[in-house]
């Protein structure tokens, strides 16, 4: 997985792509490799608005809805995705 660090990565994201928030406690890490997936949540990109620079996410399956700290729907600005340093591209 690749951490979202710049706008060029975000511009490649499309509907149905999977984006992972890791870790859920918000303390950024440099590498996802070998990490505990229990401390993550996967979101599916529902849509992206380039003009407003916002991505809307949904949880792709019902099992994820039970994870602590997860929302069933979420929207993030492009800037927040970069600044928070906890968002990873799992699948384009």
Architecture overview:
- The chain is α+β, with helices and mostly antiparallel strands and 92 residues long.
- The chain has one domain: Cathepsin B, Chain A (Alpha-Beta Complex).
- It is built from 2 helices and 6 strands; from the N terminus they run βαββββαβ.
- The protein has a 6-stranded antiparallel β-sheet with strand order 1-6-2-3-4-5.
- The chain is globular.
- About 7% of the residues have low confidence.
Question: Secondary-structure map with pairings?
Answer:
Elements: E1 2-3, H1 7-12, E2 18-21, E3 41-49, E4 54-58, E5 73-77, H2 78-83, E6 87-91
Antiparallel strand pairs: 1-6, 2-3, 2-6, 3-4, 4-5
Question: What are the main properties of this structure?
Answer:
globular, 6-stranded antiparallel β-sheet, Cathepsin B, Chain A, 92 residues, 2 helices, alpha+beta, 6 strands, 33% strand
Structural class per helix/strand content?
Answer: alpha+beta
| Computed Rg | 12 Å
Q: Which band does the percent of strand residues land in?
A: 25-35%
Side-by-side strand order of the widest sheet: 1-6-2-3-4-5
């Amino acid at each position: 997985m690749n951490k979202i660090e710049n706008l060029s990565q975000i511009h490649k994201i499309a509907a149905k792509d999977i984006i992972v928030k890791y870790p859920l406690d918000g303390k950024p890490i440099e590498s996802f490799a070998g990490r505990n997936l229990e401390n993550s949540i996967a979101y599916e990109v529902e849509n992206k608005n380039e003009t407003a620079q916002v991505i809307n996410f949904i949880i792709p399956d019902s099992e994820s809805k039970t994870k602590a700290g997860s929302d069933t729907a979420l929207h993030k600005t492009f800037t927040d995705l970069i600044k928070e340093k906890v968002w990873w591209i799992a699948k384009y």
